[in-house]
Write a structure and sequence with these properties.
Chain lengths: ~350, ~800
């Protein structure tokens, strides 16, 4: 071996010309491999004179450090460049629409029922159901509408037999639920389908949905009814809306009877076509449960009082969404459901 | 009930306009539906005075009238024979709109008319076209006609309990109470002459339970003719047809007092008597509409000495009716039993204004009063003279109802306690007599005597409503209740669980792309039949698989054949939703409905099954530019059903089944144990063709929601996470075509032992020899140790052995 010192600059120069990973590996074998000049120089270190061995060793180590560092740097730069190139190849048009997740539409009737149910649940009401095919007794007689009474004419009824009918309102469930619990207090809300034997047009359906509410307790009043129904109306139509109550003598099963209106959302109460220029929209009928109805289910009307209301679900949805034809609800046209569901 | 304000103003002072009055009445429970404005189209019409009448030069039947309009005079052509110099008449100038048409200045037989004199029908006041309407002689020429004849008519919706409001006087009482005024009832001053009615004539009631009171009066020497225009127009405004002066008076009294009357031609009555009795079964009577009626024993007839002359309260007989030749009138004012009136009218289809009042109940105290008022008008309008006295057979107990009223009830029911003074004032304004009984027991009680016309006031709650509605509901505070929240369930708990599941499934299905439909529960007779491929009767017990064979309940009075039956299945409904949407909706269609089917039960209400129906057709995934446009198939719908079972927490199995509408090779019954939960399948191609649907497969499912909710695992318990690592093994077997995947799955589950924690089917393909290749991957895990390869292989071998033995499977 000569005394000539190992010079790393040759290798460093060669590295500058390496262009791809294969050439880099060749370079590594040539300059840092076991058979490289540098490694051989390390191997020959034993033959170096003892006094120079330490110095030579240091020089070789320094050369190796330089070559290795240069190699790592070069390798990093090359893989970074490769990754950059790959990422560039993987570029997509981010402005293309995404792959859609399936999404179905909620029926507006269900939406109103769920919204009102949630509001009443928050006031301790149970949501319950009852049969659509009813006995005349529950639909009429127990609600203060006896046979051979003109109040029966107020609703055109579908009959199945002379005793069995399609319920004309959800009110028979009042009677059923009171019989079920036996003893006040009770707070129930009853959504469901009802039937009227009348011709259909843009504002009348023979088959539609109602919600019935009933509360009986030893100390509840018409004022409570007004409070809870106003809370519900503002929950459904907006906190800024106003409610108003007037007398309604059309429900034989309540006394006193009432109806609730909200200020018209179209004209803000100024009067327009939607509210028949009154500024108010009637949305439900309500009242204090008639003492005879309570007596009929063995609840003492001198000890307990109750109130009830009934509303048309479609009417609420029509007011909320500005729908002008009630027949759309059971038409199930997707062009309709997509807009309101 | 239509009430012209000018008529109303006869009985109560009106201190506000129609709008304000309508609001006041409506808020107090007498709903005003509409305000009709008489004269709103009379913008340019005026009162004219006829100054001169000449003959028309070219027409015998026409005249030329020169009229004074105050500021100027005009000449008009007039064809009516009744005009005379000095009359004040309605005049319409050129350009005014009469019966929808603008008047033009056109020559009539060569003479230009500068306007038109109007008859009552041309003004919309009554159907009378017999001549020009002659106004009060004191009217000023040139005055706007609307100011003279115009009026506002309230159209009121009277509730069944308020029969007293089917009378102008009844409405006047409401207005008086609401405005703090009093009602003025005009007195009836009847001029009587001649022989008293009681001399010779008799009235006998044989059925007082059907007719408890009968008043008869005799009016002699009437001249039948037309009513004056004011009466005609009042009747017209109230939608009652004018007949002649006598009949019009009876109708006028009915509208004024709410008391129906009937006038007989006295000279026709045989035997000087009226007998009120039950009809004989099968008795025949020709009513004045010319129809022969066959009567039953629960109807009431009015008879003379020889036979029936009228159907009491409903309609008179043809022969005894008042005719042009009538000279003497016998007036009937009677009270009839409400239920009898209603039943008779319904049975014979004879609804009338009179029946409407009788079935609601008529004030029993005004029977005589109403007759006297009618006699007064017979004198005024028909020249008749009343015979002295009346025959009044009266079985009614006129003792008034006195309600013992605890004023604290206002607070208990309304939430606001009103004072004795306030309550007394309000009830007094409605005609009640209120007094404080001397023997008070310390509670504040009032004795409230109900007026005879308020048949609806029966108990304290009724009086509370009166106080509230007359005071105004706005006066009540708005509060929230203080009572306890009820804990006792108000319906069976399993229904509540099912309703909660319904809400969860709605969310799940919406997220899976199904839109909710709500369809009519009433269907046609063909709805089921057209979905049955082969008309074979199935006598199996009713289930979701046989629901189309269940005989549907039929409505006794359906509106149309299209909606005459209660559906037994949701399948026709959901298919209809698909059929009606497919033409305009692009891409795949996915719908669900949660609704009821109605299965009849003998002698009981039907079984109302709450059912979830699903439908998918066309591309399963939403449309996009990506290549995902594959059509929905059986596996898609079964996947949806599996997701539903997962949400419901129900373990269920799928097995081969039959359904009359579905592809015989693509329908599965869904069962939990032996209970049928529902089915999933593909619509039979013949049904698809029958319904004119496109060729894409239509996938459907129906699930019984109550069965699903009842089967849900009651409670989930945490089982701990197994700490030792899981090992997986694969196994591919070939089985014959008769072996169902479910069988393989069950064999694996039963032979895998407790180390087997999961089995997943990884691949299925058809082998050329007809067998199927099924690949499974197993997850094995122990609670106690890390499994060795040998242990895992042993489990797999045991499974393979079982498959070979039970199903003839061969390992591949």
């Amino acid at each position: 071996m000569t005394d000539q010192l190992y010079d790393p600059s040759l290798g460093l120069q060669a590295l500058a010309h390496v262009e791809d990973l294969a050439a880099l590996e060749d370079w590594r074998v040539a300059y840092l491999g076991r058979k490289s000049e540098l490694m051989q120089a390390f191997g020959a270190l034993g033959q170096v004179a003892a006094d120079k061995r330490r110095e030579t060793g240091q020089l070789l180590n320094e050369a190796k450090r330089q070559l290795e560092q240069a190699y790592e740097a070069r390798k990093d730069a090359m893989s970074r460049a490769a990754l950059t190139a790959q990422l560039e190849r993987e570029r997509v048009d981010v402005t293309l629409p995404g792959r859609p997740l399936p999404r179905g539409h909620a029926h507006p009737i269900t939406q109103v029922i769920q919204q009102i149910s949630d509001l009443f649940r928050s006031m301790g009401f149970q949501i319950i159901e009852g049969p659509e095919v009813e006995w005349e007794h529950y639909n009429f007689t127990m609600l203060g509408i006896p046979a051979d009474h003109p109040a029966r004419d107020e609703t055109d009824t579908f009959w199945l037999t002379d005793k069995m009918l399609l319920r004309t309102h959800t009110s028979p469930v009042q009677v059923r639920s009171l019989l079920h619990v036996g003893q006040p207090p009770i707070r129930v809300l009853v959504p469901g389908r009802v039937y009227r034997n009348e011709a259909t047009d843009a504002s009348h359906e023979a088959v539609f949905f109602q919600m019935e509410g009933l509360m009986v307790d030893d100390r509840t009043t018409m004022s409570d009814m007004m409070g809870m129904l106003s809370y519900m109306a503002r929950g459904v139509f907006g906190q800024e809306r106003k409610t108003r109550f007037g007398c309604d003598q059309g429900f034989p099963f309540v006394e006193p009877g009432a109806q609730m209106s909200i200020d018209c959302g179209v004209c803000q109460g100024a009067g327009c076509r939607v509210c028949s220029y009154s500024g108010w929209l009637e949305i439900l009928g309500c009242g204090m449960v008639h003492p005879d109805v309570l007596r009929g289910v063995n609840i003492d009307p001198d000890r307990y009082t109750g109130w009830a209301f009934g509303l048309g679900v479609e009417r609420i949805a029509m007011l909320k969404h500005g729908i002008d034809d009630i027949r759309l609800f059971q038409g199930n046209d997707l062009r309709f459901l997509r807009q309101v569901g | 009930m239509k009430v012209p304000l000018k008529w109303l103003a006869r009985y109560v002072e009106l201190d506000r306009d129609a709008e304000a009055l309508a609001k006041l009445l409506t808020a107090a429970g007498t709903e005003v539906d509409r305000i009709e404005r008489i004269g709103s189209e009379w913008e340019r019409l005026q009162v004219a005075e006829i100054l001169e009448i000449e003959r028309h030069p070219n027409a015998d039947r026409l005249q030329l009238a020169t009229v004074n309009l105050g500021a100027h005079t005009l000449r008009v052509v007039c064809g009516a024979p009744n005009i005379a110099v000095g009359q004040k008449v309605p005049f319409a100038p050129i350009g005014a709109v009469i019966q929808g048409q603008a008047l033009e200045a056109r020559p009539i037989r060569g003479v230009v008319s500068e306007g038109m004199l109007c008859a009552a029908d041309e003004l919309g006041l009554s159907p009378d076209h017999s001549g020009i309407l002659v106004l009060d002689p004191s009217e000023t020429p040139g005055r706007s006609l609307a100011g003279v004849l115009g009026d506002d008519v309230l159209e009121l919706a009277i509730k069944p309990g308020r029969g007293d409001c089917l009378a102008v006087i009844g409405i006047a009482r409401e207005v008086a109470a609401l405005t703090g005024r009093s009602v003025r009832i005009p007195p009836a001053t009847v001029t009587e002459r001649g022989e008293p009615i009681a001399q010779g004539f008799q009235v006998r009631i044989e059925a007082p339970e059907l007719c408890p009171r009968f008043v008869a009066r005799l009016v002699r020497d009437v001249t039948i003719g037309q009513s004056p225009w004011w009466l005609q127009s009042l009747l017209h405004a109230a939608d009652v047809r004018s007949i002649n002066n006598v009949v019009d008076v009876t109708n006028f009294i009915m509208l004024e007092w709410g008391k129906p009357l009937h006038a007989y031609d006295y000279d026709y009555l045989r035997g000087q008597r009226i007998i009120v009795r039950r009809a004989a079964e099968g008795e025949r009577l020709t009513t004045l509409d010319g129809v022969e009626r066959i009567l039953t024993a629960d109807m009431v007839v009015i008879a003379d000495a020889e036979g029936s002359i009228g159907l009491g309260g409903i309609m008179g007989g043809a022969e005894s009716e008042v005719k042009d030749t009538t000279h003497n009138v016998l007036l009937e004012s009677a009270n009839f039993d409400a239920v009898t009136m209603r039943r008779t009218a319904r049975r014979l289809g004879m609804h009338s204004e009179a029946v409407r009042r009788f079935e609601r109940g008529v004030d029993p105290a005004i029977t005589r009063t109403a007759a006297d008022h009618a006699c007064y008008w017979f004198g005024e309008l028909a020249g008749g003279v009343a015979a002295p006295g009346a025959l009044d057979v009266d079985y009614i107990d006129h003792t008034p109802l006195v309600i013992d009223f605890d004023v604290a009830e206002t607070g208990r029911l309304l939430g606001k306690q009103y004072s004795d003074e306030h309550v007394s004032r309000v009830l007094g304004s409605l005609g009640c007599e209120v007094s404080q009984p001397a023997d008070g027991d310390g509670r504040r009680r009032l004795a409230v005597t109900v007026p005879s016309w308020r048949l609806d006031l029966k108990q304290e709650a009724d009086l509370v409503e009166e106080v509230a509605r007359i005071t105004g509901y706005d006066d009540l505070p708005v509060t929230m209740p203080s009572g306890d929240i009820p804990l006792v369930p108000a319906q069976p708990l399993e229904w509540t669980a099912r309703m909660a599941l319904e809400d969860r499934l709605r969310q799940l299905l919406r997220g899976a792309g199904f839109s909710e439909a709500i369809t009519y529960s009433l269907v046609s007779e063909a709805a089921n039949r057209e979905l049955i491929v082969d008309q074979e009767e199935l006598f199996e017990p009713p289930s979701l698989l046989t629901a189309l064979f269940i005989e549907p309940l039929r409505l006794a009075n359906a509106m149309s054949e299209e909606q005459a039956f209660l559906r037994t299945s949701l399948l026709p409904s959901i298919l209809h939703v698909y059929a009606s949407n497919r033409r305009h909706a692009g891409g795949g269609l996915k719908f669900f409905e949660i609704g009821r089917a109605y299965w009849q039960r003998l002698g009981d209400l039907p079984d109302e099954r709450k059912i979830l129906a699903l439908l998918a057709a066309g591309p399963w995934l939403p449309p996009s530019w990506l290549p995902d446009g594959r059509n929905a198939d059986f596996s898609d719908m079964r996947g949806a059903v599996e997701a539903i079972l997962g949400e419901a927490d129900v373990e269920a199995s799928f097995s081969v089944a039959e359904h009359p509408s579905l592809h015989p090779g693509r329908v599965a019954a869904v069962r939990a144990g032996d209970d049928l939960l529902g089915y999933v399948g593909e619509l039979h191609p013949l049904i698809r063709e029958r319904l004119d649907l496109p060729p894409d497969p239509v996938l459907v499912a129906e699930l019984d929601l109550q069965a699903l909710a009842d089967r849900a695992a009651r409670q989930r318990r945490y089982q701990g996470i197994r700490r030792f690592p899981a090992v997986s093994r694969q196994l591919t077997v070939a089985v014959g075509p008769e072996v169902a995947a479910e069988q393989v799955q069950q064999a694996i589950a039963s032979s895998g032992g407790e180390l087997l924690t999961e089995v997943a089917l990884a691949d299925v393909f058809q082998l050329p020899d007809g067998r199927r290749s099924l690949s499974y991957s197993f997850t094995l895990q122990s609670d106690e140790r890390t499994l060795t390869d040998e242990e895992a292989n042993d489990v797999r071998d045991a499974i393979m052995a079982a498959l070979r033995e039970r199903l003839g499977a061969v390992q591949r």
